[in-house]
Amino acid sequence: xxxxxxxxxxxxxxxxxxxxxxxxxxxxxxxxxxxxxxxxxxxxxxxxxxxxxxxxxxxxxxxxxxxxxxxxxxxxxxxxxxxxxxxxxxxxxxxxxxxxxxxxxxxxxxxxxxxxxxxxxxxxxxxxxxxxxxxxxxxxxxxxxxxxxxxxxxxxxxxxxxxxxxxxxxxxxxxxxxxxxxxxxxxxxxxxxxxxxxxxxxxxxxxxxxxxxxxxxxxxxxxxxxxxxxxxxxxxxxxxxxxxxxxxxxxxxxxxxxxxxxxxxxxxxxxxxxxxxxxxxxxxxxxxxxxxxxxxxxxxxxxxxxxxxxxxxxxxxxxxxxxxxxxxxxxxxxxxxxxxxxxxxxxxxxxxxxxxxxxxxxxxxxxxxxxxxxxxxxxxxxxxxxxxxxxxxxxxxxxxxxxxxxxxxxxxxxxxxxxxxxxxxxxxxxxxxxxxxxxxxxxxxxxxxxxxxxxxxxxxxxxxx
Length: 465
Prior knowledge:
The chain is mainly β.
């Protein structure tokens, strides 16, 4: 005899099957339902990444290697009554590496940044919520919008910084107006961030100092992590094309209780019979807004600090798309150019992967850049950068926050985009070498280790689907 319990279960199963059929029939009758639209017209995007990195350091200083792998999935809804929702996440694993954790007398600079620099011994639990935003498009052209939530932005200073496993992400309010032909506007207020090489979200003030703190202007070791108070950063941008071949941009970064930066950029491009000629100029002005009374070592920027930066470029692109350019940057001796490395990298014309001039003043930098395509379809490209960087004295903390000696920097990058069955797969290789310009320099780890007389290799595979 069938028990009352089993009879109840059977009835429940029959009812569930009936409900499922009813839902299916209802969806067939109402193909314009919200859930059907979200499922059929929304976009799912996947990304798999593997990243191998290795550094060979000067003489007796330790070498490192690491292999990270991960994957992520995102969903972006269709635009419904001008609204759109986006969400995504990513998870990372340390497949194998040299010891990157605590207990060493030397700190790792590059390989650890593939994972979570705040927890070097964590090899597996490296998941992060990334995009989660609501966007509203102003017009049916779907070019201009305002959005709120978690997302990424790409500006000359605050940007993706996407040369580790995962990029920078921001949280806040962001607007873009792109409907006009000659003028584009961007503006936003950002109140929290998840820097690359971390898996947590921080307020803007909390995030400053997660990376290395360098030296304070008094020469002592800086210790401002956890002592920076800021309600966020306000960014504004005007992009203007007054006449053909001319582009002018002005950016302003107002970081509460930290600084104000104004950046202007003017670029010219002219196509002739055999070449496309190009020129560019950037001017950056920074002023401190800091007014607290903490000890100097606990201040990210002191009350009276300021800086001025000039950067220029001349170059040409031939008919095959191959590009040559010579680039120059001058940071004056008025003070250190400061922008939190947790927020992005500077995109001055002399920027060279695996090193920065942020944190320094009285800098002269010259760089030659060549981009060459090795096939007709432009799938295989080779980029070479060679630069000389004249830095202030390594003992001058007022102008050299990270005690970086003057150096020369060679960088070779190759990129290949697959086609056919493997479309969506990209391979990227980077090799860099840095060494000192002066033969007279103190033999101390803080001047050599992960800075000069070092070889570095990165091999990255990305698959987007």
